[in-house]
């Protein structure tokens, strides 16, 4: 395993492994049946609506397929020659993309809810893993062992996320209502525990002291610059935190329905003005402005509960997965240039570029 990683970092591995990343736009997906599928996202038909082709899969007949639901899949951050997957079958697997064979497998005592590799790390190859145990596991790809444990949570860890700004800083969310920030280099580990009341004891009951939410915290997402952290809890609240000071910014998003009994995977845009948060909300996706809390629209298209969202910044695309067994791609509605001497209000509806007409629909548009 160490040789596999070293060769990739040193650029000594077969260049053909990178060819797929250059030639195609690919996406990993993991299903409740344990199957992993790799899709080609390229729209060769140039039609507004199209179906992505599956390139390959780790199917039910594969000897190393996950036995239960796949909760997280992630490409190796430096190239797509390797990817990772974790599952309710208590394992984290490291896969060679070309052979679709596991290069390594990490076993845990309890269900795995979430894992994450740092997108910016250059000095470590640690995978943070949240499981049914209150201990956060750090698996080292170079040594092939779970070399570090972060202790501080009191219940299962439902979500983990490395900072996109500081490679040693990790955020974790737990069923104990708490969110912790860690510096994995420190012996004590924990930098701070986020407090929804900003440590104003007059506002906090003894039970709520030092808690981020009044319910299980099952979702975490950093803004792209790493300056802020969004959290979601089963108290139907979403909160925005200053990741440097740990301060609750008190942005009010209203009721953010969250009935998930496991990790809720939501996402934040990158390169938009303003930036948006995309949050699974029943069979829809709620779109909020990150820094003002305004509910912009509800994206409708799925027929059952939406489990996850991911934003692709290079192409400004949103992908959502649902229990209806569909993955939908969403693109922002683009309007054709309006002549200077024409009022926008006087334009007919068809002035909207027809290729994007139904891509970014809202409840108001559909009524």
From TrEMBL:
GO terms for cellular component: chromosome; Cul4A-RING E3 ubiquitin ligase complex; nuclear matrix; nucleotide-excision repair complex. Residues 340-367 are annotated as: Disordered. InterPro entries: Rad28/ERCC8/Ckn1/ATCSA-1, WD40/YVTN_repeat-like_dom_sf, WD40_PAC1, WD40_repeat_CS, WD40_repeat_dom_sf, WD40_rpt. Its main location: nucleus. Gene3D superfamilies: YVTN repeat-like/Quinoprotein amine dehydrogenase. SUPFAM superfamilies: WD40 repeat-like. One of its GO terms (biological process) is proteasome-mediated ubiquitin-dependent protein catabolic process. Substrate-recognition component of the CSA complex, a DCX (DDB1-CUL4-X-box) E3 ubiquitin-protein ligase complex, involved in transcription-coupled nucleotide excision repair (TC-NER), a process during which RNA polymerase II-blocking lesions are rapidly removed from the transcribed strand of active genes. Following recruitment to lesion-stalled RNA polymerase II (Pol II), the CSA complex mediates ubiquitination of Pol II subunit POLR2A/RPB1 at 'Lys-1268', a critical TC-NER checkpoint, governing RNA Pol II stability and initiating DNA damage excision by TFIIH recruitment. This is DNA excision repair protein ERCC-8. It comes from Aquila chrysaetos chrysaetos. The lineage of its organism: Eukaryota, Metazoa, Chordata, Craniata, Vertebrata.
